[in-house]
Amino acid sequence: MANQASGEKRNDAPSTRPSPSGGTSGDNHARKRLFSKELRNMMYGFGDDPQPYAESVELLEDLVVQYITDMTLKATEIGSNKQGRMVVNDILYLLRHDPRKYARVKELLSMNEELKRARKAFDEPSKGLE
């Protein structure tokens, strides 16, 4: 975490440490950073500096991408769908031993269904007016 009061400057230059993709994060073939903005906001929300070190954000993003990749591969391996396609129940199965993550996924799925119903109810009256 940075100390802004000390006048310490941040090094936002790309690092050259190895990335999970096999290359270095500073080379020309580095993976595109997909979640940097969101991760910076989340880090700030959890008490980090408003402008966290680029290396911290990159490391966190590497961990997030690795976790998502691992979970996706595991879900397709145990896949209940015979065509090798992942379904929501595969993710739920993987998270069955982690009550917090399992409950959060169930909550998000429930909210998604509620939003779908609300959109459908909102769209139906307008179709009758046409």
Automatic annotation (TrEMBL):
The keyword Hydrolase does not apply. The keyword Nucleus applies. Gene3D superfamilies: Histone, subunit A. It is found in: Nucleus. One of its GO terms (molecular function) is protein heterodimerization activity. InterPro entries: Histone-fold, TFIID_TAF13. Residues 1-33 are annotated as: Disordered. Keywords: Nucleus, Transcription, Transcription regulation. GO terms for cellular component: nucleus. GO terms for biological process: transcription by RNA polymerase II. CDD domains: HFD_TAF13. Belongs to the TAF13 family. This is Transcription initiation factor TFIID subunit 13. The lineage of its organism: Eukaryota, Metazoa, Spiralia, Gnathifera, Rotifera.
